[in-house]
Write a structure and sequence with these properties.
- There is one protein chain.
- The chain is an alpha/beta fold.
- It has 3 domains: about 1-65; about 65-290, P-loop containing nucleotide triphosphate hydrolases (Rossmann fold), CATH 3.40.50.300; about 315-590, no CATH class.
- It is about 60% helix and about 10% strand.
- It has 19 helices and 8 strands.
- Helix 10 packs across helix 15 (about 475-490).
- About 35% of the residues are buried.
- The model is unreliable at about 510-520, about 520-535 and about 610-619 (pLDDT under 50).
Length: about 625
Amino acid sequence: MNDRDDSGVLAVRLQAFLRALRERYERVQQQGAAAGVDPATLEGCLSSLTLAEAAVRYLDLGADPAASRPLQVAVLGPTQTGKSTIVNLILGMPAAVVSPLAGFTVHAQGFCVDGAASDGEWTRQLFPGGTRRTSQELRRDELDAYALSQVAQDADAQARPPTLPPCTIWDTPDFDSLAARRYQRGVLETAALADAHLLVLSKEKYSDLAAWNLLALHEPLGRPMLICLNKLTPDAFEAIPQSLRARLAERCPTLIDAPIVGIPYRASGQLAAADVPGEVAQLRAWVANLHIAPRAKVSGVQKLIRRHWDDWTAPLCAEHEALQAWQALVSAALQEMLDAYRRDFLDHPQRFDSFRRATVGLLALLELPGAAGVIGRVREAVTYPVRRLLAGGRSWLERRRDPSAVRRRTLAGEERVLFDLIDELLVRLERDVARRCDAQQPGCAVWRALGCRLEQQGDALRERLQAAARRHHESFAREIQAAANRLYEALRQNPALLNTLRAARATADVAALALAIKTGGTPIHELLFAPAMLALSSLLTEGALGAYLRSVESELKQRQLEQARAGLFQGEFARSLRELVAGLEGAGVLGVPPEALAQAAADLAAWERQGSAAVEPAA
């Protein structure tokens, strides 16, 4: 792929990014005050984005020889400056409809002169999404329409030099009236399409801020510009152009040498070419002598994009910084949660039950084969009536209590700690997000949208985190059983102690069974049986075996910490919380992914480095 092909690919990708960004800005604009964005700032970004996106698109269009278009000239200007009149003067005929009403022209209307075919291939790419109409078919309620018609210079016009080359002269709507925002896109689309701009001002309008904002917007494009000062009275023919030059030098220095043509004011009747032959000749000569270098045109589009790039992307960067702040907030909250888990469970002498569960597993392994099963079944049968009675009593009490509190009391120690920490985590995150929703802070729209999502999905998120905690607790049961097996294997290395423990376990089981029979299976036997089991457990903690048990306990605790850290806190918890911002939508949120912005910035930089490569063929 050569440099020209590379340049075309980069331009196409960049144009797609600008189009997507413009659409997102338009969506924010439609949200109104709820977006929390300054309307003037938003309007400025939309104007420059629309112009830049169209300008890149028409560069790509020009790269196709079959779509090569003739010279395009856009006649621009504020309301009631006489744009349609100037179009007619250049064409030498009343092609554009002239009206004294402000905002009368609301559609872009192109007039193809002589060899510029109005039905050529190039016309099929104009005004994407717009509808082509004839001038008579245009309706004021169909603002996305445009007109393109063929005109021929009459004999008188052709006899008066200079003769216009094949070209299209565009009459455009104003950009400063109250309703201009409704049809602004047509103005900007035409300006981007045009190879040259003819700005029509008047004595009353030449100093308006809207006119100078337009000049500042179009200046980076570097398109040839002629300024026509229309409706000048005799006393203004020298003063107004001089004042205009001074302002150009101050505000738009690259346009300081732009030709200025003054048109006299006529109080009555339509101004005809015969009334100002010298001025008409200047206008037509400027059009006839236009030559647009493709490379300069590409460079102008690049300058336009670069000038406004920071303004367009500043809100995106603020959103990305907010997303990074959320990730940091989640990481800090999860680290504190992990520290609390270690303090409130792993290092807590009563709540940490993993090693006790391993010990219970070891006691099961110490049961005498055959006898243990018989004793267990007899004991279960004896205690069955009382257990059923107690179960019924508990059920009656639970129905009179808060179900969630009942469920929480039935949880294992680790689950109860994790569930409490999950509640604290969500409360903390909701509080921290709410603090960042200040409308004056960059990226506040992201925080507002995130707060809404936390509120809407809070219960589902809590259930998801609790389910992850439950899975972690259940999965660690394998590690606990493995610890019990390691303890049993250690006992097998000491047969005397193993046999002693088995005998003690069998004696304790028989004593517990006899006590259960005498008490009718009431819970009192468990209380009396506990010291016997404690004595059995104390045998395990004596001597070298006791040291090994303590090492197994420490190792079990470390394994549980690592599994909670990697699989739960840094795994499912972190994933669930970070996924909250995926596809985040809300008032004022542009929602462009950081990867898309980085790719667009890289494409722009690469396209600028290829400054010598033209997207469209040389004339």
